[in-house]
Backbone:
């Protein structure tokens, strides 16, 4: 046993003395390898965590998004197409989405403006909320809610016409907070003042649909839309894009 | 390494609430992607990318957004597009 221990001691002694003979080279190599492993492991951990987080967060995202493409360019989506899509077997629900960009020259930033969810959801929220509001809109406007319903509620904050919810980044840059007013220049040059109903924890903006229509030249028969619809028979219909040759609409 | 594991187990409950809040926002606003890049719309929303938006400025203009060189449209989009075109033809 003692002889075995001595043998191991001599091997360790020889190894250490060999390593110490070229200190700089060996420690340099050790540092280099450590750094390489550290970088690769960090990238792998980071990639995996992003994928994992995306999978958890995006569980509730729409199963299919439909966009209209004309000659390879994104085009506005006619609201009447929603009815056609709704008739496809297996489609559980269809919903248009109104959104766009706004350039704020004051801070040199592009904002994403997104109108609240569909009136069906707003109607459900209205049953729970006693607040009332008036929406100026036509009957054909799917985004305009009934006059007695709030457009949207986020974390207990009811979004009414003339109000918006902003991201925390904008609140910080513009130095504004809940209850302040934020001016926007509409497409016809008029200034629209929106009251800030709340701020989001991440950088997203919400603007009520009626206000969005008054800011942008989008006609009421159009939605900027990805229309989206959850399916209950996903396999039978598939989630692949289909091409309607007559209209050039890409599903 | 063990410190990492300890940190992960300690921060798990705190991060859970954060994740749930984000998931609720995705469900409410019907969001589609993580915003990994902010410059071009086809890299901002990868799942909504087209095959032709990279050439949106000119047929011969090369991709000029740096993020376009880091990422590609999801494989499912290109493969499904090919299969669909074949079946339509």
Residues:
């Amino acid at each position: 046993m003692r002889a075995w221990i001595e043998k191991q001691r001599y091997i360790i002694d020889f190894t250490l003395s060999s390593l110490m003979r070229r200190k700089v080279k060996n420690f340099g190599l050790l540092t280099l390898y450590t750094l390489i492993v550290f970088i690769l492991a960090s990238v792998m951990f980071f990639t995996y965590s992003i994928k994992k987080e995306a999978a958890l967060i995006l569980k509730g995202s729409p199963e299919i998004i439909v966009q209209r493409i004309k000659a390879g360019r994104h085009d506005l989506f006619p609201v009447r197409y929603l009815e056609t899509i709704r008739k496809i077997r297996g489609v559980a629900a269809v919903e248009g989405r109104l959104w766009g960009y706004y350039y704020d020259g004051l801070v040199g930033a592009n904002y994403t403006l997104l109108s609240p969810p569909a009136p069906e959801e707003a109607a459900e929220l209205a049953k729970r909320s006693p607040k009332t509001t008036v929406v100026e809109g036509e009957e054909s406007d799917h985004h305009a809610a009934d006059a007695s319903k709030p457009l949207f509620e986020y974390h207990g904050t009811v979004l009414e016409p003339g109000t918006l919810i902003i991201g925390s980044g904008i609140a910080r840059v513009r130095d504004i907070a809940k209850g302040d007013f934020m001016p926007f220049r509409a497409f016809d040059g008029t200034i629209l003042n929106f009251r800030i109903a709340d701020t989001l924890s991440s950088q997203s903006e919400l603007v009520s649909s009626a206000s969005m229509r008054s800011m942008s030249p989008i006609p009421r028969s159009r939605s900027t839309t990805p229309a989206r619809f959850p399916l209950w028979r996903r396999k039978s219909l598939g989630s692949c894009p289909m091409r309607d040759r007559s209209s050039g609409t890409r599903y | 390494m063990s410190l990492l594991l300890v940190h992960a187990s300690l921060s798990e409950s705190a991060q859970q609430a954060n994740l749930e809040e984000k998931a609720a926002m995705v469900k409410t606003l019907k969001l589609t992607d993580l915003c990994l890049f902010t410059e071009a719309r086809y890299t901002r929303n990868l799942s909504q990318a087209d095959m032709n938006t990279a050439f949106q400025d000119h047929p011969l203009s090369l991709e000029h957004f740096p993020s376009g060189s880091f990422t590609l449209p999801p494989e499912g989009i290109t493969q499904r597009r090919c299969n669909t075109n074949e079946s339509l033809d």
Notes: The helical segments of chain B are 2-29, 41-44, 75-88. The longest helix of chain B spans residues 2-29.
